[in-house]
Specification:
Length: about 160
């Protein structure tokens, strides 16, 4: 399976600006003190449906920096997301938007021409505590490929029983 993971085909697509009524409306709940890449994966077989708080979809990010949902795809449009650190008691502390760098959305296929085909889409960001600035927020970024591959391998083991 590891060789197949290394042969992932990626299709990156840019954030699409929509009409005023199309908004992303996501809340990311990130473990207190976490720094690094945060990735939300969609269309993961057997994962829970996305939780809602009013008009917002809620992503509980784990200690490895990712969340999974069986919801087929993310919302597209004007980015209206909120980011919070969450402590052990569930208390939320808003993260300054200058500490968040958005990454490209994407999709991946594993074993594309087989009955075991896996398709997921994802969105991500990088969170910092020490480099918060307008420059950090607006500088383009890509997720570390080794980190990404490791997370995808964890997800396929847990949800698809792949080795």
């Amino acid at each position: 399976m590891l060789e197949k993971l290394l042969a992932l085909s990626f299709t990156l697509f840019t954030l699409v600006g929509g009409s005023d009524s199309e908004k992303t409306n996501d809340i990311y709940l990130i473990p207190e003190g976490y720094e690094g890449y945060v990735i939300a994966f969609y269309n993961v077989k057997g994962a829970p449906e996305i939780k809602k708080e009013g008009d917002y979809e809620v992503h509980d990010i784990n200690n490895q920096g990712y969340s999974v949902t069986s919801t087929p795809d993310m919302d597209y449009g004007t980015i209206t997301d909120k980011y919070y650190y969450v402590d052990e008691k569930g208390k939320r502390t808003e993260i300054n938007k200058e500490c968040v760098r958005l990454l490209a959305n994407g999709s991946l296929e594993i074993e594309p021409d087989t009955p075991n085909k896996i398709e997921m889409s994802y969105t991500g960001m990088e969170i910092t505590k020490s480099q918060c600035s307008q420059d950090f927020m607006t500088a383009g970024g890509e997720v570390d490929q080794d980190k990404f591959d490791s997370v995808v391998q964890d997800i396929t083991k847990k949800y698809y029983k792949s080795e």
